[in-house]
Amino acid sequence: MTSLSLQRLEKKLGGAPILRGIDLDVASGELVVLVGPSGCGKSTLLRTVAGLELPDAGTIRIGDRDVTLLPPRDRDVGMVFQSYALYPHLTVRENLAFGLTLRRTEAATVKARVEEVSSMLGLEKLLDRYPRDMSGGQRQRVAMGRAIARRPSLFLFDEPLSNLDAALRAEVRVEIKRLHARLAATMLYVTHDQVEAMTLADRLVVLRAGVVEQVGAPLDIYAEPASRFVAGFLGSPAMNFLAVRRERDRLLAPGVSLAIPSTLETPKELVLGVRPHDVRPTSEASALSFEVDVVEAMGFEAFAYGQIKDATHASPGTFIARLDEDALRTARHGARLALAVDRAHLFDAATEKAIGRLGFDGERQPSIEATP
Amino acid sequence: MSAREDTARQPRGSAIRGALVHAFLIAAVVFAVYPILWVIALAFSESVVPEARALPLPTNVSLDHFVAVIGRTDGEGRWMFARQLWSSAFVSIMTSVVAIAIATPAAYALSRFEFVGKDASVKSLLATQMFPGVAASVPLYLLLDAIGLLDTLSGLVLVYATSAVPFALFQLRGAFDAIPKELEEAAMVDGATRFGAFVRVALPAARPALAITALFAFMSAWNEFALAATFLTREEHYTLPILLQSYATEHDANLGHFAAGAILVSVPVMALFYVLQRQLIHGLTSGGVKG
Amino acid sequence: MSLRARAILLVVLSSVCLALASTWTTSLGAAQDGRVSIFLWHAYGESEARGLEAAVDAFEANEARAGRDVHVEVTAIPFGAYASKLQAAIPVGNGPDVFVDAHDRVASYVEEHLVRGYGPLEPEQAADFEPTQLESLVYGSDLWGVPLSAKGLVLYVNLDLAAARSLETLEDFEALRDELPEGSFPIAWELDSTYASAAMFHAYGAQHIDAHGGFALDDAASAAALARMRVLVSDETVPSESSGDLVRNLFRSGRAVAAVSGPWLAPDLPPELRYEVRPLPRLRRDDGTEAALQPFATIESVFLASHDSEAGEGTSEDRHRMARELALFLAGPEGSRIRAIEGGHVVCSRSAWADPALADRTTLRAFRDAAAAAWPMPTHPHMSRVFGPVDRAIRKVLRGEMEPAAALAEASHRFADETRPPPDRRDPMWGIVVLSSVLVIAMLSLVRQLSRPEVREGLVRSMPAYAWVTHALLAVIVLVVFPLAVGAGTSFFAGQGSDLHYVGVANYVDILTARGGDLFATGSFWVVLAVTVLWTVVNVASHVGIGIALALALSRPVLKLKTAYRVLLILPWAVPSYVTALAWRGMFHRQLGAVNAILDVFGVEPISWFAHFATAFAANVATNVWLGFPFMMVVTLGALTSIPKDLYEAAEVDGASPWEQFRLITLPMLGPALLPAVAMGAVWTFNMFNVVFLVSAGEPDGSTEILVSEAYRWAFTRGHQTGYAAAYAVLIFGILLVTTRYLPGATGGAPRRGKAA
Fold first, then answer.
1. Distance, in angstroms, between C12 CA and closest chain B CA?
2. What CATH code would you report for C539-680?
3. Alpha-carbon span C348 to C368, nearest angstrom
């Protein structure tokens, strides 16, 4: 299997910079997920790797070959498109064999590969159908099968699950993971869905406006987001952000009063990031004072939507808090809850970069871990 | 359309409305078919003189006009109808082949690539459709003479095909616009060149629009009279519309022959329409006449 | 040159030829042993062509007997394209060596240098023709053609209806009127055509054109003749709004005692009809004197082309000699005899009629007698311009819209307008200055563009795309844009045929100022423009309205016979438009048309469709709507399938009535798909030449012409004023270009891109 290496990749489309100096290394056999909001350049990056777009600057290496200027057909990549891009005038069998036939593969090999791939993906009974006669899930499988049949050295996935319904999506997600293990292939996978990103990735790349915001193992990034953007992008429900002011060893805002170590050097204006899972209703004097607006209970979990406010003022924005079973019983519209904070993230309000992670391990004595 | 939907979509009083719709359609069909029936009646009549009657029925049914038109020979006994039918078929088929061959790659490029001068080319192509052809026939005559293609079927094909190109371009560009470009990208990733992707994927996907565009090019050549009469001299080269026109000249008019000829000329086009009616509806939409 | 000298010359020439040929035989097989092949063009119909071909065969056989290898390639050219084809083909050597055409074109052909003179004929050859017929082919001092056959109008008399009555004068026929039943006429006569009515003018001493090519029908005698014609129509001696078809129909069916028609009527008459051909009757003028009705005679003549045909074989001298010999053979006694016997030609050669085989051809002889007494059509080039204006004047008078004198004065004015001398030659300096400065500015801006780095970069990036489009652009530029541009360029020139001179923008000024006439008179550019706009709007609105209505009906989910309806409704699209146009013109015929026959069923009086602007315009529109609605219907059908069904379901849930659903969902959703088609349809309709030209032909009085048919008239029927027609074309182009800029969806618009990732 083969590695992929991108260096200082730049690309403009119609004068607007889309990729602004991307560096990325994908190890052989690794599944790297590119994630980011729409317009961040992740699809362009994938298309540049495929050769469908040529970069304005930078190099792309697949294995030990410099493929920067090679046409797509010479890069030995397989790609699964969001729209599947199945050839409407060909049957499933012909679709699967298309790439092999183009490369003048022997008929016997083609037949063997088509059979192998179709049994791998459960397509045996569909081989003589046309794409228009199949369901979305079936088409998606054919699209993957078409990429697999060629045994390329690099797989590219461009949001392959976004046209499927939720249940099917979960199923195929697991299947991709299984395929990855079975094929031990190098894969680059683009999605805007954080669940896919978290569950599939060996390594996660968060892109924002053409720049790599953070690279790392999914759980590491979840635990230690490098910026407010990354922190807000991963996690469901999303992290709460509160604009706070530092007053010596306290962070203050309407309804917020949180102790921090006085040794920590910070600017005066800060953003406090708290995941809904990191708060807990308490009867003691608390860091956050929360007024419930709406409660969503899902059986295994419950969240309250409301505002952090003191007697007179509210911090801007909706705040989401996870409720335990006790709190769920009392939480009603208009109820006030005191919330204790277990873990929190601090960001520079101006640069939005992470400053540190606060932990409050039971003793309510803050510990600090500065972001490198 | 499922049966369930059918019944669900039938409000009360739909019987009356259905009858009204049929009445409307029948009226339209009568309007559409009536003049054609007249031509048919004339062609099958023994008499060459039209009678003032409301019902288009032939008087004394006879096939004489068809026999005369089809069996026409020239002074040397050559079977002219067959030769002229061949001329017409050759010119029309070649016109649609050449027009499609010229227009398709260009339409693909207009749909898929950005290039300097694209906007200007599209606008100029559109503009050619607005210029009345009255001014162009003499320059064209001299041009064909200069390249030695006057009085040849190839010369006529060249003129017809190029004048069919602008419309074919718009038609096909619309069709390619409607084909997701991911299809060709997938093919290129799968190992095709850009041209390979065009031939193996874009062309098959554009088949309905190609069929319709070819049909229009065919029709434009099949029905054209003025340029053909100007450029062709030898009678065995004549296309059928010239023959038809000669039956409709002022003093020597033979309307029965004209009508029989008109039917013979129209039947192939009608057959093509019948075969391609589905593509006609979908080819025109996916392509649209997007200017 | 004496016969002896000629023989010597011939021997010398042929030996030179032989010497030349022998050196060439190895390389040029076709030219060996003095074979001569020449081309003969004619525009005869089938039966007449047979006669000509038989005579040509005899000529070839004669030559072969004399040991000469002569081949004559005979080509029938469609009548409609004949004149323009001769004009285009002869100067570039693609034409014939010998051609047959009517004598009245002789002056135009001489002026355009298309024909060669005959030189003097042998006295016995000249003596074989009527002097008047031969004289009509003299222009200047030379003889340019020899007469083949003469055609003129004759009187066909139905012997059963005429019985023993004396029918010597027109007044005798008028007296018959009261004896005949409704729907029958004493004479079927196409009086409202200039050609068929000429005899009436001649009988009153009027002439169409004077010796200098001026309009001569504007005197009192002409007005008197026209007034007399009006009486003939109003007392129903002659049917009103007649046509060739009607004349034939009335006479065939025994509803006319007599018919004024030409030799072409005879083959169409059923064998059981007993008739006789006579010269036209005499006419008793108001002062009591009698005058003969002398119709125009058209003398079909054979001309020698000024340029050799490139495809012919043999030396130029041989071919010229052979062409002349062929022409004189065809016109001479033997050729004429064969043509008369085999093709029924009314030959001019006197001695041919002595042949016993022609002795019992009474009808043919009657034609000949009538033609010999007829009035050869004047040969002045302006004669051809008399027809249009006089046709219009006669029709106006016969319809009772105008008094004869006023109508003829109007015709005179119109004639003067159409024959006015071309604008003065201008110094092309300014034109060249403007053209070259435009070119220089264009070049400069191109160079400046190219010097900008981003443009050059763009060009480099565009290279792969150019590989896909260059061939198409080149083909379109060479074969579409270039000819159109040359055509547009001729709008700065005036004159006829190849005799053009630069006149600057005079053509445009003339058009836009209505040549100094009334800006709002019929036929002025502005009025025609208004008619054209009305024409376009009415047609497009009908196309779209009917198209959408039918598409909606056809797209109903439950509809029996849907496919059958659809196929039948698409049919009009599959029929060539000129067939349709002629069929519709026939259907709107006043006496024979199906439309009036239908109206008759409902008790409605027959309508003269082409006598009033509104009805003639309506006839044109009906035809064009018939032609155009299937296209709109099909486009709409396609567009309808792309409207999601759930939109209607949502609207139904919201309580929208079917009409509201149509107005709020269907129409707005159809818009984007239909707009380009509508714009394209508007452009096509604006330039829809066939329908207007063939259905109403501008009737009445040119009021239903649209811009493009007006341009065609200047280019083809009003003396080939190519420059003037081209100026019309450029104006049409300009109008459409400006209009479509402001029509959404009609322009190229923003380049559409595929879905961006």
1. 35
2. 1.10.3720.10
3. 8
* Domain C35-150+298-375, CATH homologous superfamily name and number: Periplasmic binding protein-like II (3.40.190.10)
Q: Please list the residues that pair with A9 across neighbouring strands.
A: A22
CA C153 distance to own-chain centroid: 21
What are the DSSP E strand ranges found in A172-314? 186-191, 203-208, 211-216, 240-247, 250-253, 256-259, 269-274, 279-282, 288-297, 302-308
User: B85 and B53 in one domain?
Assistant: no
Does the predicted model carry a pTM greater than 0.90? no
Residue B288 has pLDDT above 60, yes or no: no
In the chain, the amino acid numbered A99 is: G
For A306, the 3-state DSSP assignment is strand
Determine the Cα–Cα distance for residues C215 and C220; give it in Å rounded to an integer: 13
User: Distances in Å between the alpha carbon of C567 and those of B57, B276, C634?
Assistant: 22, 11, 11
Helix, strand, coil abundance in chain C, percent, nearest 5:
60, 10, 30
Residue C594 · residue C587 · CB < 8 Å: yes
Q: What ranges do the domains of chain C cover?
A: 1-31, 35-150+298-375, 154-294+386-419, 539-680
Phi, psi of C211 (to 5 degrees): -65, -25
> Residues of A numbered 74-103 whose beta carbons fall under 8 angstroms of chain C's beta carbons: which are they?
82
Q: Which of C479, C552, C641, C686 to mutate to test the interface with B (most CBs of B within 10 A)?
A: C479
Apex A224 CA angle, A223 and A225, nearest 5: 110
Model pLDDT for residues C363-407, shown as the tens digit of each residue: 888 898 888 888 889 888 888 889 889 999 999 999 888 899 999
Range C154-294+386-419: architecture per CATH: 3-Layer(aba) Sandwich (3.40)
* DSSP one-letter code for C70: E
What amino acid occupies position C386? V
Could you tell me if C435 and C441 are in contact, meaning their C-beta atoms sit under 8 angstroms apart?
A: no
Burial status of residue A124 (CB atoms within 10 A of its CB: 0-12, 13-18, 19 or more): exposed
Query: What pLDDT is recorded for position B249?
Result: 66
Q: Name which of B160-164, C74-78, C333-337, C617-621 the model is least confident about.
A: C74-78
Residue of A nearest to C461 (CA): A54
- As a whole number of angstroms, the distance between CA B221 and CA C732 comes to 24
Neighbouring chains to B with at least 3 Cβ pairs closer than 8 Å: A, C
In sequence order, the 6+-apart residues with CB closer than 8 A to the CB of C314 are C31, C34, C35, C36, C37, C38, C322
Predicted ipTM? 0.86
Half-sphere CA count of A174, side-chain side, radius 13 A = 5
CB contact under 8 A, B291 and C680: yes
Range of the domain at B221: 77-287
- Within a domain: residue B121? yes
A89 in reach of chain B (CB within 8 A): yes
Using a CB-CB distance cutoff of 8 angstroms, which residues of chain A are in contact with residue B207? 89
Instruction: Write the DSSP symbol of residue C215.
Output: B
Q: Where in chain A is the domain with CATH 3.40.50.300?
A: 4-225
The CATH architecture one would assign to domain A4-225 is 3-Layer(aba) Sandwich (3.40)
